Amino acid sequence: MSDIEEEEVGEERDEDVDVIGEYEGQRNEKCQRHGIGRALLPNKDYYEGRYNQGLRHGLGLYIFKNGARYNGRYSKGKKDGIGIFIYPDGTKYEGEWKDDERHGYGIYHYANGDFYEGQWRKGVKEGLGCYYFKETGAKYLGLWMEGKMNGQGQQVTKNYRYHGTWVDNLPYGKGCFSFSETKVIQHGFYLNIMGSDIDQGGLDEEEEMTIHPVWRPRDITLFSASQLPTEPKPLEYPSDVSRSPSPEPTPPPSVDVYEKDFFKDIAQYDKYYQDEKLMWQTDKWDTEILEELKKRAEHHHMSEEEEFMHEGYVTDPLETE
Predict the structure, then answer these.
(1) CA-to-CA separations, 60 to 67, 82, 249, in angstroms, rounded
(2) What is the third-level CATH fold of 1-113+248-284?
């Protein structure tokens, strides 16, 4: 199956509004879910992460009962910011989100080994991106529109590179091939011809007609970079459709860690989440432990230098004597 021509398998569905079901966590004065908590929804989906006034907001992990999972940022109950979505069939998207849709820069890994890296807009590939075909080793680098190869681009293989224009995933119009070994450029154009993959015996009435690109060479010249089309550039959208700012983590990081390394970014924010979660759990511990900490504090009047030099110093204040 060619993944660039098919609907993406295992697409995420809307997550239930988790105002019901089992919940454990922090609440505000209005008894809304607010802060850190976890919820088991009536449909058996599971969420653990941050809430703000009853809505998922900040870093969170959502696990669907069908095996899919999302680990990333939320804003006002929707996926927004950087996040990783793993689908039941093994496909995976890691990148930017807006209003529950892939939007911005991201990488989509397909189950067959193909992957796409580039721009997204409102859930589909749109802008400048690269699609790698694992089976052939070829890749397409160029413009996309409404999820298909549309516009200026290049097809790159081991032996040659084609420069031209694509329309609905097919090369069309003027273009040229450059060859790595012969150092020449072949100029020509593509025609899209209606046809079908049938035997010479004839066309069945129910046989679906397909479009096949046919290359018409016209000229061969020595290689010169000046004869090649200009490189495709990323699309720029008006400010009203650009990616909304990601919600700030709580507490905020000490340095700006926003990068295209999504695993590093999620791990960074996850650290702050786990630290705050530990603080929340600490508040639930027995008062006996808190009293023990107070007693230890009363018996330790050494200076900082003496504490570090003391052989019996315990680094974990919760460790029992």
Answers:
(1) 16, 11, 11
(2) 2.20.110
